[in-house]
Amino acid sequence: xxxxxxxxxxxxxxxxxxxxxxxxxxxxxxxxxxxxxxxxxxxxxxxxxxxxxxxxxxxxxxxxxxxxxxxxxxxxxxxxxxxxxxxxxxxxxxxxxxxxxxxxxxxxxxxxxxxxxxxxxxxxxxxxxxxxxxxxxxxxxxxxxxxxxxxxxxxxxxxxxxxxxxxxxxxxxxxxxxxxxxxx
Amino acid sequence: xxxxxxxxxxxxxxxxxxxxxxxxxxxxxxxxxxxxxxxxxxxxxxxxxxxxxxxxxxxxxxxxxxxxxxxxxxxxxxxxxxxxxxxxxxxxxxxxxxxxxxxxxxxxxxxxxxxxxxxxxxxxxxxxxxxxxxxxxxxxxxxxxxxxxxxxxxxxxxxxxxxxxxxxxxxxxxxxxxxxxxxxxxxxxxxxxxxxxxxxxxxxxxxxxxxxxxxxxxxxxxxxxxxxxxxxxxxxxxxxxxxxxxx
Amino acid sequence: xxxxxxxxxxxxxxxxxxxxxxxxxxxxxxxxxxxxxxxxxxxxxxxxxxxxxxxxxxxxxxxxxxxxxxxxxxxxxxxxxxxxxxxxxxxxxxxxxxxxxxxxxxxxxxxxxxxxxxxxxxxxxxxxxxxxxxxxxxxxxxxxxxxxxxxxxxxxxxxxxxxxxxxxxxxxxxxxxxxxxxxxxxxxxxxxxxxxxxxxxxxxxxxxxxxxxxxxxxxxxxxxxxxxxxxxxxxxxxxx
Lengths: 184, 247, 240
Prior knowledge:
The complex is a heterotrimer of chains A (184), B (247) and C (240). With 184 residues, chain A is mainly α. Chain A has 9 helices and no strands. The N and C termini of chain A lie far apart (61 Å). In chain C, helix 5 (83-101) crosses helix 7, helix 7 (119-144) packs antiparallel against helix 8 and helix 8 runs parallel beside helix 10. The chains are: A mainly alpha (184), B alpha/beta (247), C mainly alpha (240). Chains in contact: A-B, A-C, B-C.
């Protein structure tokens, strides 16, 4: 039985088809995810992925092969996962270093952090491409190759989006009035 | 020590099914061998708190099953597969295992994961939602095994568990037994000698209501040196001990 | 599962079996209906609620139990005028139910006897199911036969099925309080005996029981039993 039939069966409520899909795809999905996530996170992401396959199988369209469709779900789940866990503390040194300035006191740092969090919304809503690149490359500090893998886009596109994200962010930060004690 | 039995007897009318048994067992897989009518099932039933003993002392999981409270605690930590387990034909595998998980008073929140794990361990993953009336005898036996292990029991009592299983399934089952025996006391009553040799750390041989041999499978094999009856070494040991006991 | 090819492609520190088990737990889980959840809350036991709800689905047992219960009902409401007959009717019904769901017909009886929830509690709960459901059916039959004027359905329903449902409720409440099914059964039979003797004493015959004016007290009785169980099980039952 091929994968398309299995997905159709899952959509019809056949749990043994889901089991077979898991048997076929979970190993390679786990291997791919393991390069960007810890083992425990891979397990959580895979669990969410296959539950999403179970509930969303009726939304599968045969334009893409089932493996790619499942990978798409896994990728989105992984990104969601990283976003939820992303440490905000990394934001500050990353951005401030880019601007060539250093926040010397905690109050300034806190205000800078708040400014940055606001400014990040300028990149677009959660889940938009620029936002995702920002999160993966600068918050998670991942190499371009990993970001390309996670987002399913070529490395060149990653770089151009990263450039655009930095530009947007700097514009958002620079455009703010310097009201809080000169922190920038 | 999960099982501490001293001088246990059970009679049915004039028949002395169990005629004075002493037994102590900790974690591990414990085989109970013997011919039909030797008293294995009665002993197992007493350990499952289903049959009250006629006399003797018994402590299971550190408690005495004579009174309601301790007996209930024992039963929550017990797994039992009777020799003849019937099934509710309209139930699915999940429903059957879940029903007994609930009757064992497992916390309701833990039940779905425990049921799924038990079904997968018994290798019934592709039959989970099938109705029991559609399953073969061997599969039904595995459903029985699944309900016995669903509450991760500290004391697991299996009466002829491999009945109806094909050789491949029996190999898988023995691996499961060894795995379970790492933490729990597993008592397997069987008349299939080869089941015992492969999985059990200790063996007891019963005849006419008494234990006539207690030791490792290797020691039982050693008893068979020079004995004529039996195709395999363990069978010869079994036969030698029985012959001696009957003489 | 792990013996199949392709599994080795997975990284060794990722527990794929565990992941599948977690997925299967959600996919396979059975969600109890509202009646079962209510029963579980009232009985403070999801296991007993499940036993209650699955009673009719154990078909052979259900049929036999129903036949015995209705036969006993016919005995109880017969105008023989002898209280002893009515007193014995519940014993007959109980024996029938115990046989249907016990060693006679229940295929997993031996296993049920090794369960933490006592087998007698399971039987009590099943008795409630048998009487309750038959009482509901009897009510429907009585309503349906109102026009035809035949009072047989009403006689059995109001004179036997509904009171016995209340008695089972009492028995279950007593059993839950005393942690003993035996106490429950004794309480149930005692309650029945009292109502029979009282009714027999006032009218001299059993027919007093078929008077529909007894329905409200019986229903109030059952409601009180329910309230007692709910209150009693609020108190933690010692060590869990």
